[in-house]
Structures are given as C-alpha cells and as structure tokens.
From TrEMBL:
Protein name: Retinol dehydrogenase 14
Similarity-based family: Belongs to the short-chain dehydrogenases/reductases (SDR) family.
SUPFAM superfamilies: NAD(P)-binding Rossmann-fold domains
Keyword Oxidoreductase: yes
InterPro entries to which the protein is assigned, alphabetical: NAD(P)-bd_dom_sf, SDR_fam
Keyword field: Oxidoreductase
Length: 149
C-alpha cells in the first residue's frame, strides 16, 4: 500500500530537474512527490502482474496530523485553524481506514495498480496514468539509488 494525496493533481514530472535543483517550491515538490508515488505504484503493479502480490495507492484525505507544524499561522488565527481542523479534517484513525481496507479487505483481493480514497477506487488524471512516464521514472530511480549504472 502506497500513500499519495489528491494534491498529485498539481504535480509535474520534470525529468530535467527531478531533484528540484534548478527551482524549488515546497508545495510543488510535495505535489510532484505524490504524483511520483502514483506512477511508481502503477509501474510496480505492471512489473509484478502474474504474481500473487498486489500494490495499490491511496489518498487518506485531509487528516489532523502534525505535518503542518512548520506552517506559520498568525497567533490570532491559530484558534480558528484548530477549530476548522477539528470540524472538517479526519482523525488519524479515520485517515487510516483506506490503508487498513487495502491491506485486509477481501473485496480488493487481486486488485492492483489502482488509486483509492475513502475505501473506493477513484479515477486518475491522465498524467498519473502515463505508462511511459512511469517506466522512465522507475528506470531513472534505479540509477539514482545505485541499482543500475
């Protein structure tokens, strides 16, 4: 099970600057990494087809975690932000439901390479289903981590 985010929609894979050395924006980098997670999952699913192993990717929704701990929120706005997050964000256990579902449910036995949210399969944008980009990203990653030269 691979965790991504709906924010993948704002990501682009730039093979000329995969490590964001030419330009860096933390929001775009996050979105790019989530798009990469989806492409990785789809390529892994392709590579392990015809085995008994499956792999899927999900977005947990907006979850109350400490991921935003370094976001500067003005002191007077913090109580409002906390109220909004308690009212509209998922708890960590609610955010984990799709992870548990994909890991244990017989309903998804044999299902591989799919994208889920709230325990349901969801459609992806075309850029997240580009098999050529997924393959190229996989191949470059193998070189970057030293598996291939």
């Amino acid at each position: 099970v691979v965790v991504s985010s709906k924010l993948y929609k704002y990501g682009e894979i730039n093979f000329d600057d995969l490590n964001s050395e030419l330009s860096y924006n933390k929001s775009f980098a996050y979105s790019r990494s989530k798009l990469g997670n989806i492409l990785f999952t789809r390529e892994l699913a392709r590579r392990i087809q015809n085995t008994s192993v499956t792999v899927n990717v999900l977005h947990p929704g907006i979850v109350r975690t400490n991921l935003g701990r370094y976001i500067h929120i003005p002191l007077l706005a913090k109580p409002l932000f906390n109220l909004v997050s308690w009212a509209f964000f998922k708890s960590p256990s609610e955010g984990a439901q799709t992870i548990v579902y994909l890991s244990t449910s017989p309903e998804v036995e044999g299902v591989s390479g799919k994208y889920f949210g709230d325990c349901k399969e969801e459609q992806l944008l075309p850029k997240a289903t580009d098999d050529l980009v997924a393959r190229k990203l996989w191949d470059i990653s193998e070189v970057m981590v030293g598996l291939l030269k």
